[in-house]
């Protein structure tokens, strides 16, 4: 029975990797469509909706099966519950990428974002795609410290979003109202994509340690301080015995 349970867990973990690849591909296509005004990648991204829904449904079925198969131990239960939340984060990330692709397709052959602020969206794309790849690595390594580093990129995305909103709401804005609305909406899609990525990273911290990110950071910092104190005391003892 345990062998069958472990196989189910492994299959669930594999489906998460598949979902990760699907979402990364979606955002790659959507960003290309947005930045280049290209129709084909936008169409490809929109067409992946069925694949995204299929992987999500398969993950949900696996979760129900795992919870019903037998009473899972604490660590296994953490894996199942964390994975359920990660699936939902990935699904929302995929849908946000498709919203970006839909916006690009609707305005083709024009580029939705005004040329003078397009560079911000190039940076958005770089940051969120790096975060997406980092999240996939986390699914494999479950390194809580790597998960914490993803929050730095999330903060960088938040900073760009706030800066763009200031630009779009100033009197000096020379674009149209339509451009301001569409640009702010696209900025929000990238910002929410990064938020869900950071949320999933937090779930992996819980999966690996049993602690939420804030408590894990507190525990890690406390252990570092204690280790530094022990090192200083050991050095003092060596000096006393010279």
Task: Characterize the structure shown.
This protein is mainly α and 242 residues long. The chain has two domains: 1-210, Up-down Bundle (Methane Monooxygenase Hydroxylase, Chain G, domain 1); 214-241. The chain has eight helices and no strands. It has helices at residues 2-36, 39-47, 49-69, 74-107, 118-141, 144-169, 177-209, 213-240. It is flat. The termini are far apart.
Whole-number average pLDDT? 91
What would the CATH topology of the largest domain be? Methane Monooxygenase Hydroxylase, Chain G, domain 1
Distance between the termini: 61 Å
Note the main sheet.
Answer: none
> Total number of β-strand segments?
0
CATH class of the largest domain: Mainly Alpha
GO biological process, one term: intracellular phosphate ion homeostasis
Keywords: Cytoplasm, Phosphate transport, Transport
Family: Belongs to the PhoU family.
Domain PhoU: 18-103, 122-202
């Amino acid at each position: 029975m345990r062998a069958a349970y472990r196989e189910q867990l492994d299959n669930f973990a594999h489906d998460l990797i598949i979902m990760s690849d699907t979402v990364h591909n979606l955002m790659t296509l959507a960003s290309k469509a947005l930045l280049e005004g290209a129709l084909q990648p936008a169409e490809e991204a929109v067409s992946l909706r069925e694949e995204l829904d299929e992987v999500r449904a398969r993950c949900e079925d696996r979760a129900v099966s795992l919870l019903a198969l037998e009473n899972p131990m604490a660590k296994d239960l953490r894996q199942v519950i964390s994975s359920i939340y990660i699936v939902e984060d990935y699904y929302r990330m995929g849908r946000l990428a498709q919203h970006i692709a839909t916006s690009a397709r609707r305005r083709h052959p024009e580029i939705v974002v005004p040329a003078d602020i397009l560079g911000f969206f190039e940076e958005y794309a770089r940051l969120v795609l790096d975060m997406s790849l980092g999240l996939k690595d986390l699914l494999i390594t479950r390194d809580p410290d790597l998960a914490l580093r993803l929050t730095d990129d999330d903060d960088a995305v938040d900073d760009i979003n706030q800066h763009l909103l200031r630009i779009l709401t100033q009197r000096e804005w020379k674009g149209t109202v339509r451009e301001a609305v569409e640009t702010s909406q696209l900025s929000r899609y990238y910002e929410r994509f990064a938020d869900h990525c950071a949320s999933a990273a937090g779930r992996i911290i819980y999966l690996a340690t049993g602690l939420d990110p804030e408590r894990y950071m507190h525990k890690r910092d406390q252990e570092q301080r204690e280790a530094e104190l022990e090192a200083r005391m050991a050095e003092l003892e060596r000096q006393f015995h010279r």
